[in-house]
From TrEMBL:
Mg(2+) binds at residues 31, 56. It holds the Pfam family Arf. NCBIfam families: small_GTP (TIGR00231). GO terms for cellular component: Golgi apparatus. GO terms for biological process: Golgi to plasma membrane protein transport; intracellular protein transport; protein localization to Golgi apparatus. This is ADP-ribosylation factor-related protein 1. Trans-Golgi-associated GTPase that regulates protein sorting. Controls the targeting of ARL1 and its effector to the trans-Golgi. Required for the lipidation of chylomicrons in the intestine and required for VLDL lipidation in the liver. It comes from Diploscapter pachys. GO terms for molecular function: GTP binding; GTPase activity; metal ion binding. Keywords: GTP-binding, Magnesium, Metal-binding, Nucleotide-binding. The keyword Membrane does not apply.
Length: 202
């Protein structure tokens, strides 16, 4: 029994490298979010001037170290014709960040449909999902609760958090990164107690 549990543990939960997919509609602020995250956690990283961030066609990657955890971000292009490629990255993903532009309530129906589509993927249903309600520093930006109300996650069993952020100003960006190892930690401790109970019975 020990060998089985130790093997599973190593394979799924003890690894310190986490892969995080960043998705959301085009222009929501995904690349700015990643740049801001890198500028906060990568020593001597000079954030790109936001005015020089262009629309993402392929993929931007970023690696960030937090204590003994390494977060590998994949920032994917959000244009309609690129969205079908997102799921090819879901296989490896340990967590997902969904970025919403809070200043565009006219897009919330599309956001709702796209989010529903992402959450219908069974690989996503069991991993932590963080919704970054971006551009929240702007006057008139929708509050996180309003964005939450258009998002449906009925079949999702992983943790879900909805946070107002400003990728431009850096508000709450650290909390987004810490959400991932924190929820992973919860998963590990849940698994730990499950193994204890299971092994107690065997
Ligand atoms: N006001 C404001 N603008 C932002 C914020 N984050 C991104 N933007 C702007 O939104 C636009 C799209 O950002 P980008 O990161 O390229 O979006 P992406 O297409 O989702 O990767 C750019 O003009 C950014 O400067 C934010 O928190 N506040
Ligand atoms: Mg981009």
């Amino acid at each position: 029994m020990y060998t089985l549990s130790a093997g599973l543990w190593e394979k799924f939960f003890k690894k310190k490298d986490y892969y995080v997919v960043i998705v959301g509609l085009d222009n929501a602020g995904k690349t700015t979010f990643l740049e801001q995250t890198k500028s906060r956690f990568v020593k001597d990283y000079g954030m790109l001037n936001p005015a020089r961030i262009t629309s993402t066609v392929g993929l931007n990657i970023g690696k960030v170290e937090l204590n003994n955890t390494c977060l590998n971000f994949w920032d994917l292009g959000g244009q309609e014709d690129l969205r079908s490629l997102w799921s090819t990255y879901f296989d490896e993903a340990n967590a997902l960040i969904f970025v919403v532009d809070a200043t565009r309530p006219d897009q919330f129906q599309v956001v709702s449909d796209v989010f529903k589509d992402v959450m219908s993927n069974e690989l996503i249903q069991r991993i932590p999902v963080l919704v970054a309600v971006n551009k929240s520093e702007m006057e008139g930006a929708a509050p996180a609760a309003e964005v939450r109300s258009v998002l449906h996650d009925d079949n999702h069993s992983g943790d879900l958090a909805v946070l107002p952020v400003s990728a431009l100003e850096g508000t709450n960006i650290d909390r987004c990164s810490f959400f991932i190892p924190t929820t992973m930690g919860t998963l590990v401790s849940k698994l730990d107690s499950w193994f204890e109970r299971y092994e107690g019975k065997s």
